[in-house]
Amino acid sequence: MAETIIKIDLKKSPYENEMIHNRWHPDIPMVKTVKPGDDFIIECYDWTGGQIANNDSADDVRDVDLTQVHFLSGPVGVEGAEPGDLLVVDILDIGAFQESQWGFNGFFSKQNGGGFLTEHFPEAQKSIWDFNGMFTKSRHVPNVEFAGLMHPGLIGCLPSKEMLLEWNKREKELYDTEPERVPALATLPYADTAHMGKMAPDAAKVAAAEGARTVPPREHGGNCDIKDLSRGSKIYFPVYVKGGGLSVGDLHFSQGDGEITFCGAIEMAGWIHLRVNLIKDGMAKYAIKNPIFKPSPIAPKYDDYLIFEGISVDEYGEQHYLDVHVAYRQACLNAINYLTKFGYSKAQAYSILGCAPVQGHISGVVDIPNACATLWLPTDIFDFDINPSAEGPSKKVSPGMDVPLSKDK
Amino acid sequence: MAETIIKIDLKKSPYENEMIHNRWHPDIPMVKTVKPGDDFIIECYDWTGGQIANNDSADDVRDVDLTQVHFLSGPVGVEGAEPGDLLVVDILDIGAFQESQWGFNGFFSKQNGGGFLTEHFPEAQKSIWDFNGMFTKSRHVPNVEFAGLMHPGLIGCLPSKEMLLEWNKREKELYDTEPERVPALATLPYADTAHMGKMAPDAAKVAAAEGARTVPPREHGGNCDIKDLSRGSKIYFPVYVKGGGLSVGDLHFSQGDGEITFCGAIEMAGWIHLRVNLIKDGMAKYAIKNPIFKPSPIAPKYDDYLIFEGISVDEYGEQHYLDVHVAYRQACLNAINYLTKFGYSKAQAYSILGCAPVQGHISGVVDIPNACATLWLPTDIFDFDINPSAEGPSKKVSPGMDVPLSKDK
Amino acid sequence: MAETIIKIDLKKSPYENEMIHNRWHPDIPMVKTVKPGDDFIIECYDWTGGQIANNDSADDVRDVDLTQVHFLSGPVGVEGAEPGDLLVVDILDIGAFQESQWGFNGFFSKQNGGGFLTEHFPEAQKSIWDFNGMFTKSRHVPNVEFAGLMHPGLIGCLPSKEMLLEWNKREKELYDTEPERVPALATLPYADTAHMGKMAPDAAKVAAAEGARTVPPREHGGNCDIKDLSRGSKIYFPVYVKGGGLSVGDLHFSQGDGEITFCGAIEMAGWIHLRVNLIKDGMAKYAIKNPIFKPSPIAPKYDDYLIFEGISVDEYGEQHYLDVHVAYRQACLNAINYLTKFGYSKAQAYSILGCAPVQGHISGVVDIPNACATLWLPTDIFDFDINPSAEGPSKKVSPGMDVPLSKDK
Amino acid sequence: MAETIIKIDLKKSPYENEMIHNRWHPDIPMVKTVKPGDDFIIECYDWTGGQIANNDSADDVRDVDLTQVHFLSGPVGVEGAEPGDLLVVDILDIGAFQESQWGFNGFFSKQNGGGFLTEHFPEAQKSIWDFNGMFTKSRHVPNVEFAGLMHPGLIGCLPSKEMLLEWNKREKELYDTEPERVPALATLPYADTAHMGKMAPDAAKVAAAEGARTVPPREHGGNCDIKDLSRGSKIYFPVYVKGGGLSVGDLHFSQGDGEITFCGAIEMAGWIHLRVNLIKDGMAKYAIKNPIFKPSPIAPKYDDYLIFEGISVDEYGEQHYLDVHVAYRQACLNAINYLTKFGYSKAQAYSILGCAPVQGHISGVVDIPNACATLWLPTDIFDFDINPSAEGPSKKVSPGMDVPLSKDK
């Protein structure tokens, strides 16, 4: 059996574990070193570090401290890795802990994080998803069950010093264009809640003030939240520092394209089994800027879809110019409205789009002025037929608890 | 054999055929009427109406008259169809004409149309794709061959009068924000080159002045350019006028998500075999605003991919806010750069992304400030291995003709 | 457009066309010669040469002259092909003729051909399948519709003289073990109805007496009736004579594994578009005895299945030893009985298993004394849900015409 | 987390565990009782009960005591289950134990068990497969790695008394036709090594003498060795005794169709997570004789194949009549010979066919006198290209240890 090189204790705060960090910085010390060809297991907190509980209240989602996220396990050094190499990572498996067979999905309050449809779902809500082997279902979203497309929401190597400075610079410039905005345009370095891993206290203090937040995806990968980067896939990461420094966290049991609920996928604590190899000087050999990857040979197959179109005229009738973001929002709203015809609440429908292996395609981006995006809703996750018919829909959804909501304080 | 209810003659101008039109207007007369349950065949011009030839010069792409497009076949009336119904359309098959077994892909000059990567490919270029049964290859883009994912780029029902006015209003408002822009922000009604089908001359003159251009996708579907709306799929179209008025054109032999080259897919003339049915009052029954559809059971399977990530920091280093358009552009540029390492020119690589069944996914849209988009490049369309390896790439592309380019005059 | 190198006239007897033959013999002259890399189209009679009509009587199936089959188009010579080479054949497309958009499936009378379940269906029956673009349905088998998995039931190169002698010898030996058996154990050479293509009359007379019948699959491929050798696949055929001599016929619109109804698949006349290439000395290079092939990238996807098991205890309770034939028969009977619970007649159910893209797997062949075979019934070809549920099945099949039966005379 | 209702200790003999049994008999007492809707975990010995070790000698395969197999976990009672019901079983997950991340594949000596190709591999051989997360590879079979298609080789409900008698009768009749045969035609009851679970000693003694051996698949399912009955699938089992009495064992990490090596798949000890439900009176409702099942939504996708044909002329040139067993053997031999051209030994190639997710199709069973079977070899499990090319194969297989062989004593 592969060695577990990073262990965690769910009963303890991630701040107590020096193999965890929650900022990106080139100077965070490696917590372990492995060799090319090795495989090993890394345990991970859920992205919030345990702030969300398995219960029927959304208070914890409403009150979450987002300056703490994401708690990452690592960085792991790889012998021989040098800037310019590609670190080849095979995700051999992912799982939840035996004692923690559940995950959560939530909508953040517009006052604290927001989300893709925050105008329509402005207050905190939460659904809990129980895992039964490879499958999941939720007491808050009846009549759906599906196999997990487990993946790390966040994985990548440490940035170089130059790259870090560039990140901070460009994000600050954006932030400064509208500094009062809620939600903010960007998450800037924030030392108070930084966890700099094994760094010595003095150095950590300095680094915390400039350590990049983990929220956005960047050149190194990071918080890409790509559902198809799932267990079984093979990823080629750019290396920027000696040893590579691979960190991982934010495990998801499943997610729809876009991670539209922001909190986010079906979020879980768990473990990830990895194997690493190197392509020396691979960045130049293959002109690599961002990571590239091969999808898994063992992803769940939910390939019968009902596909919803959206165009870049928003829900208020306003015309936008080739805006895929607006177009995808319309496709999502169209799907939500459709599902309500079968008895789902809008929050339940939104949860489904955030949690199930929904595809979001950029279908047309040149037909001025309208972008066209499509949302692919898998039909086989429902225990009834959701396809249209001449008879029209009937209320199929079993009565039960809706997605809990906690009003803003 | 099903009846061919609309015939065309490739040797004649589409303007001579009164079963063709190139504007949207509720008053365009039905050219044929069919019954629910009927299946029938419709012949279609390529979207430009024959402006592009099978040769090795891009002059015709450079000089194309885009005010003429798209030439559509129809409208076809369906007995019993009324506003509020859903018109269920099965695409039973699509094909090119025996005497016209080829298609074209082009990049418009930035001066005349532009495209998704027009800053990088500012001048007109064209590739010709020959069809060999279900497969295609190009003398301008060696070492790729793939089966066609044939689909209509443009299909939908006539708008109501109210809907037409709304389209014109919102697009004019957008246009007016930057009326001098090249390419324009929107294509407004333009009477000079309008073809109003069977409309009587006086009425046609009036209607031409307000008929919506066919360029963008809209609520009725229209020019969605969704590659997966392919032969074998089933589509549910909103009906806005009595009889429905289904028109179709802009047939594509294949296309990548986004239709990023704008001209566009592998564009072809050909025929489409359809079957129609109705869901009475289906729009209300299912809360339908835009068309929905089921994908085909017989689409080409190129499901081994190399996936490229892009984030919403543009190629000049500027930070954008959750902009999927920018993110997808980066993923495309990353793929293009990758392919050059095997010997493709950038134009050849761009053609591949525009023509092959490339997927474009909206992977993350909430992780401020970066959207993450992924481009899925099918690996099995190449006759050599394009996956990364420790050895690095070698020049694999056979020497030959590059994609012809015609400089702006 | 590719050249049609072999043309047929459905209104004329295949015996009048010297590009057709119905026996295997090394001396049948090539009807055309092509070059490696060429693609071309070949037209084909249905396997019976037009003996079966599109009507509602099975008399023609009952009275069929099986000594005539199969009518093949060819042989086509390939420049440079020599014994020991592999002839690489790409099936670029297959289609029915515009004027002949239908096919037939039948059960032969036990007195004249029989079939896999001939004890259960001892009399001639026939179903007619209409083609609507890529899809088919039958007035005799309601509530099913599916896309065609078009393939040549029979394709291969001419045998060498030595191979022919070996075929005749071994089949005669088997035949002689039970010469009175009905149906016979093997089909021996039969000169009366032989069609030897372009052979000169005297030579033809001699060759007809020894020409191998086309019924069984053999080393060269021949009548393999492999549904997955469908349009889009690539096949590597052994070459035994100079020029190869590729012949093809017995086109099927669709078929289930096993071709269990014997007459057989959905049988049709039509055309096939091929491309040929050579691997010199390929038989030795790859130790090839029988053809090998790659499946198509564009086969219909009906991949939700209900799977039936069968073991090698026959329907009369008798124990057989690791007999896959018996086991598959049980799986088929189990599926037929299951379908009757939804209102299908047994003949309708048998037709479905013969025509639809049913899979037959050799699941276990070592667990003495029982072989285990599985029949995979695609569920998406039905317009109702055939999966089991707690409520049990209800009669879903629309009333209509059953599969016509003609009693033995 | 679901409860583990049957636990085992790999360090102890299965004979010491009264929740294990190795014969089928209606009177074996239930070891646990669950309710419809429950999910639970069952631990299982490997089928030999630990007779095979992770080493480089095949002595244990040669000397295996096959009268002991298979060690099953159960029977588990289900509240409310009665004869005539269908027991619906969802396989929620399967895994190996943390401390036992490996499996074995072997060929039995012809003197002790034999196998499908025992004439070609008459002596005992063994390969060991290490598990790395969801993937496996073997030090004895280089250059292949693939994700597991984990499944129980053996699962089913207790037979009724009548059914048991019928099994014993028909198998004894077959056995008696050639009682001296090696390997035997059937495995008859054998009391000496019987393990009757919780049965009281006196009753166990009586039952052991008539308890059916677990080797063959039968009406209840049993040792079907169907690779696609994998984790994620849903199975409908006939119920013959009050409470059902579900037993399971013989877990496989992966297997090819046919389980042609007999010992067998990649055999492992491990656990299986199940959920049970009932369809009351389901056998009559759906005319069920043998189990039926739905395949998993989360099976590994290795869907690029090289397909080998075989016909029912055996490797010695003898003609058989529509014998799928012979035909599949030829397809297997063809594949083995093909693989040797890339440097594999025949034993390595045979192991691959037994272990990898190879498909075996019954392609044609009516074209007298030759059945046609196809073996589908997945190409993506190899780390080099195994497709044919004009250049011919080169030795690609890494040097190393061949599959260990132990000569008969």
UniProtKB/TrEMBL annotation, chains A, B, C, D:
Protein origin, superkingdom: Bacteria
Gene3D superfamilies: Acetamidase/Formamidase-like domains (2.60.120.580)
A molecular-function term among this protein's GO annotations: hydrolase activity, acting on carbon-nitrogen (but not peptide) bonds, in linear amides
Family annotation (SUPFAM superfamilies): Acetamidase/Formamidase-like
TM stretches of this protein: none
Protein name (database record): Formamidase
